[in-house]
Amino acid sequence: MSIFHNRSKSMPVAVPPTDVATESGAAPLQQATGGETSVSQAPVEKTDAQWREELSPEEYRVLRQAGTERPYTGEYWDTHTRGVYKCRACGTELFTSNEKFDSHCGWPSFWAPLAEGTVRYIHDRTLGMERVEVRCATCDSHLGHVFDGEGYGTPTDQRYCINSVSLQLVPTDDAGH
């Protein structure tokens, strides 16, 4: 499974998975250049004990153990507030309300990340499915999955289906944007 962005030349493009597998058996996907400046922060590395201390049990289950919140229960699935969505674990800016759309799937949906390099992709073969997992590129926290070709009519024909508990919305007035 591969993901490709069909946006203007200044937008990020993801490429098909490599043949290299991670320890979990998931093949990583790589970001290709798309003309946009990569957003890179120093990697956040913490012990499991530190993550457990800083995150609520539900945040830990989703962000650190790749769990999924129940649909239609998360804080942002139906939010239309303008702003920036940050990683709840490390504060990296990941998505904006400009790319958020109503998919009616029960989770916040975006048609693209904020910038190239803010997220990374992993080929996910869990639960007998072929999916592409989306993780924060800074702290490696699980965010959700990205799906191609579902016909939503977005500029990329993709749906980044992201757990609300993985995000923290900073409204535009508070975001300094």
Using only CA atoms, what is the Rg? 15 Å
Biggest sheet, spatial arrangement of strands: 2-8-9-10-11-7-6
Order of helices and strands: EEEHHEEEEEEEEEH
Strand proportion? 25-35%
How would you briefly describe this protein structure?
The chain has helices at 48-54, 57-63, 172-175, and strands at 13-14, 28-29, 31-32, 83-87, 93-96, 100-101, 109-110, 119-124, 131-136, 142-148, 158-162, 167-171. The chain is mainly beta.
Descriptive account of the structure:
The protein has 177 residues and is mainly β. The protein has 3 helices and 12 strands, in the order E-E-E-H-H-E-E-E-E-E-E-E-E-E-H. The termini are far apart. Mean pLDDT is 80; it is low at 1-38.
Outline the secondary-structure elements:
Layout: E1 13-14, E2 28-29, E3 31-32, H1 48-54, H2 57-63, E4 83-87, E5 93-96, E6 100-101, E7 109-110, E8 119-124, E9 131-136, E10 142-148, E11 158-162, E12 167-171, H3 172-175
Antiparallel strand pairs: 1-3, 2-8, 4-5, 4-12, 6-7, 7-11, 8-9, 9-10, 10-11
